[in-house]
User: What shape does this take?
Amino acid sequence: MLTSTIVFVVAGLYLGGLFLLAFVTDRKAERGTANFINSPVVYTLSLAVYCTSWTFYGAVGSAARNGLEYLTIYLGPTLVLIGWWFLLRKLVRISKAQRITSIADFISARYGKSAWLSALVTLIALIGVTPYIALQLKAVAASFDALVATDELLPGLVRDRSLFHDTGLWVAACMAVFVILFGSRNLVADERHPGVVSAIAFESIVKLFSLGAIALFAVYGLHDGVADLFAQAEWHAGVKRLYGFADGFEPRWIALTFLSAAAIMCLPRQFQVTVLENHNEHQLATAAWLFPLYMFLVSIFVIPIAISGMTKLPETANPDLYVLHLPLDAGYGSLALLAFVGGLSAATSMVIVASIALSIMISNHLVTPVLLRLPFFTGPDRGDFSKVLLVVRRVSIVAILTLGFSYYHLTGTASPLASIGLISFVGVAQFLPALIGGIYWERGTKAGATTGLLGGFFLWVYTLMVPSLGGSGWAFMDLVRDGPLGIAFLRPAALFGTEGWDPIVHGLVWSMTANITLYALVSILTRQSPLERLQSAVFVDIFHRRRQRVEEALQRSATTDDLFQLSQRILGPERARRIFLDYGLLPGGRTGHLQTPGPDFVAHVERQIASSVGAASARSLVARIAKGEIISLDAVINILDETQEAIRYSRELERKSKELEETAAQLRRANAQLTRMDRLKDDFLSRVSHELRTPMTSICSFSEILAGEQVLDSQQTRRFVHIIQQESRRLTRLLDEILDLNRLESGRLEWDLRTVDAAQVVREAMETMRGLARNNAVALEDRMGARSLPVTADADRLKQVFINLLSNAIKFNSTDNPAAWVEIADAADGGLLEIRIRDNGPGIAPEDQARLFDKFARGWNTRSRRSDGAGLGLAISRQIMLNLGGDLTLASSSDKGSCFAVTLRRADADVPAVAE
Amino acid sequence: MGTRILIAEDEPYILESLSFLLTREGHAVESVMDGAAIMQAIRLHRPDLLILDVMLPTTNGFDALRKIRATDDVRHLPVLALTAKGQKADRQRMLDLGADDFVTKPFSNKDLVARVARLLNGAPLEDGGQVAG
Amino acid sequence: MKPDKRVRDAALLLPLAGLLLLMPPYIRVFDQPAFFAGVPLLYIYIFCLWLVGILLSALLSRTLKRRLDAADMDLPDGADRRDPDGGPDDR
Assistant: This one.
């Protein structure tokens, strides 16, 4: 039996434990030993503050009432997290670069650091989130009541009770203390609160654990496993309804997914934990799958609880409280207590973070701008403004919680938890167009964002807040029933005649339509101020920007002293000193440095100050002391264009240098080839020179002998003259061959192409060689048969080839019964014909075969007298064959003989182009 | 005179002219036409001078020369190199390899005969070039 | 640059595909009265899809983390992602 005392004590101990945890963490953080705060797991758990008591209690309620719809609340964020690389990462990157302090600051900074915009966002956030805070308090109170009530199961109405017996009040007070202690201890540089983070991470674990425990209880305690659970539900009509989608589920399904996706970014508390408390982008990478996993588990746990609730608990039980009633009714008091603690965790974590986020926004964007206008606060000897800021912060926290509590106390509505939460979602979703547009659309202007926000906000209030207040009997009842001034067409719940729409869908559609339309239209129609242009470029291009300081464009100068004074007052003396020390710019010009710090330093200081008071206030503060020209739009555009130019130029450069590399590689290759060819040419020339000198030597020598005084006998004279003649002819032949080869290779020869019979040409060549064959006692045979072989060729040149081959076959055959013959082979390809010249000579050594057709290759005729021919014969023959579209190859060679193959295209086949 | 000259040359006509010239001067002339057979021929004929064509089949003149200079009993054989290349670098190479003198083709008969005589008398010229024209 | 682009495209496709598959009309397809061990087909579809999405996201994150490290060399506009307090960032 659970008495209120027991519950109070447990709750108190639990909260006390939280305080302790936060305290210890903060101490460790101060000493620099709290690195676990930066772990991706802790980060992800802190994101799970998204799952408030709406999830803990309301998800089961929603599942029991509306089936699978509850999943949309978790599917939306899952998608956003999975797509972190594009959206969330950009938000994080920008926020770090610009030292953003809240979502209002983000939006304001993007649209020219506008103070009005940040104030507007803050107000909307406050109005939107207050019901949500109230919701948490209501959940705690209701769960407390359920826990200690003895006999009845109340349908969830908060009993009318005096103020001091209201659990909600105590929770709110407790939260206020917690947040003041741990959420605003000092104005740190970047709004990170390690104590708070560790507390809510811990609470996320408790939430999950507790919900899981109840789910397990439902499956294994109340049933015998999953199958049993579903089997027992077979007969229950209500459960059956949950198995599928109802008709017309689509609009709500889509709308809620969209809303939850928007909420995971736009809810101030989510922005706080996701973007501002982020330490590095690796955390995001882990959260991208770990957070969806968390929500996956939560969603799965909901199902057995919902089903069991419907089958095991009476009809009148409040589905929102199934989580408690299931263990309670079965008599497991401690389990129910665990559930209560889980719910408490869910509620308190939301309240804590939301209060911090809202208090930052209020102090920075609502209060500070006002205070700064009052001379009281900005005179030269006003002391430390940072202390004032702290007080403002703390007062806002109390104010927020008071507001939340009042809302809860006054509107003890019977609406299920889920619907209040959804109204809140639509409210913060109004930030989405300005946010997304801000980071992707450079053209989005401040005017556009403002009008969009105003329009969306107005419609949200009109279509959702008004009916909800009217519904609870608080106000606006006439308006809801009859429409403004009696115009039914403009009734809040059915605008423009849209009867029967689900209220959330209705509200979302109209508010978003107005928001987006106004944002887009007005942005297109208005121009941006220089600062807006600057900021929009910085935001949209954050991934591409390098070390460029575009803000330097704003020429500003201030004296070091003035800046230092300002920094001291806002940031406190310690931080101010550190900043200035880092820059070597101690005031008073002690180090002899510039009295006028450069605009980049001014921008730096402004950013530091912005981390305490928000971008807009920081800007106005610094602007006051920094004398600046209002830079013209043209100048900004020029600078931005220059930047674009620079980016384009550097890309061009990259491309060009790649091209250059390729060209250089090509050049290297070409050079290598030229060098090779050069060497070949050198080789050739030196060989030619050698070949020419050889006959020259004989000619010179014998000429000299003949011309000498010594008398020779006539036989010797005749001999020597003969030799001179021989060698002269050889020389001439050599020169002819060289020229021939050259012309063949360069293609400058004139060909007389006709259809000739190759066999006939061969026979003519053999005739010519008969004499030589006889002289060398070589038998020459024609084994071609009677076929005719029509080819397209130059007859003389072809004959030259055969003569060359036959001559070689005759001259280099040193066997006993030398023989040479010509035959025709069957070529594989029907269009080609192959004529073979064979001999039975000693063959060609393998090592010489490779160089056989090279110019001046002579290795293979060592045993011959090289009295004619200079080794160019085969080279020339081959070249001729190639030019005729055929080939000349050494088909085979062994010590039994060699075989040369002449290949030609048949004239009746398709003749390929011959070299011209 | 009793001097024997070995000519290593594979072009028959050049060999013939050299033979004729040197025989006319009173030397005994032997010939070898293959680089691989030079060592054998030297040992066989024991010449007083070797005229060596650098472009020989099988083993070229350079290698043959190197071998000669590396073999003890024939190291001191005077060698007159015959080359078709006339560049300074080639000349230098011949001398570095151990030729005592060299002549480029085509050569002047008078010049060749003079160099042979000088080598046989044991005094090679300093600059291995053409003496006249 | 090719593996780069592919990873980037995958990172974009995954959430978009997830979105598409979770919306009507696709999700309607699975709204059939079919049961596996008593569990409705629709539940199985959604939760399996969800789980697959989580797995793919985990895999993708591994690759993307490496890209983050590689890109650390050129941080844009003064943002020191690792250092919360930042130092002087005008360098």
Summary: Residues 125-133 of chain B have pLDDT under 50 and may be disordered. Chain B touches chain A at residues 10-14, 16-18, 20-21, 24, 34, 55, 57-58, 84-85, 105-110 (CB under 8 Å). Helices of chain B lie at 12-25, 38-45, 61-70, 88-97, 109-120.
